[in-house]
Design a protein that fits this description.
Layout (H helix, E strand, L loop, with lengths): L2 E2 L15 E5 L3 H7 L4 H21 L4 E8 L7 H20 L7 E5 L7 H14 L6 E8 L1 H17 L10 H5 L12 E5 L17 E5 L8 H13 L8
Parallel strand pairs: 1-7, 2-3, 2-6, 3-5, 4-5, 6-7
Bound molecules: farnesyl diphosphate (FPP).
Amino acid sequence: MGIFKKKQNYSIENIVMPEHVAIIMDGNGRWAKKRGLPRSAGHSAGAKNFRKIIRYCSDIGIKYLTMYAFSTENWKRPEDEVGALMKLFKQYLEEALRDFKDDTIKLQFIGDTTAFSEEIQSLMKDAVEGSRNRDGMVLNLAMNYGGRSEIVMAAKKLAEKAAKGELSANDITEKMISDSIYTAGQPDPDLIIRPSGEYRTSNFLLWQSAYSEYVIMDKLWPDFSTDDMNFALLEYAKRNRRFGGV
Ligand code: FPP
């Protein structure tokens, strides 16, 4: 796996497109540090770029897009940084609700959203309700998301069924776990993009990423452009996916 640095204009005409793309929006802090700005300024720039990239993905026909916005571990960050992120989430949700009538994106949340303030939870609920009947791109926003806790959640659901006698432990299948996690009913991600050059999964889509293709790029999230997105899509199109076969 290499880190990709090249940048030029990339055409994605007639290439094999992934159905489900997932992005780890990493590097906001470093982007701010490089400019002598507080980390919150990096998150603001990251949120601006988030809007641009989701729109682009919708325009080019991506069917499912999953964006890692806040992990179960991100609560450990300084209070002012967490506060700045909450403010950005609230702004985006209010804006999404305002612009709803013209939009085609179907918004969903993956993660334990009960940890957010009543106000944010209520905005999330309205945003999901308001976009429920859309037929455009599904945008999964990972908020207070952790891959391990998602698997624990599935284990608990299945254990409860077993305790009630509705299921025998021996009959548990992979599909039952896939159907018990946040992305139930959706295809697994084909392509996971990690800007900022780190070689880690960071607890993102652990179950779903078993056969995902990773593209790691040496770009900080606020600088990640539509051209970088095209580069990642072209890189994906070149991969020979075997899913464990030959
Ligand atoms: C990781 O970069 C980024 C986050 C923990 C936050 C991601 C959130 C956004 C991009 C804002 C999303 C906004 C909306 C509206 C959904 P980092 O801060 O860990 O970067 P570093 O590794 O350079 O410090």
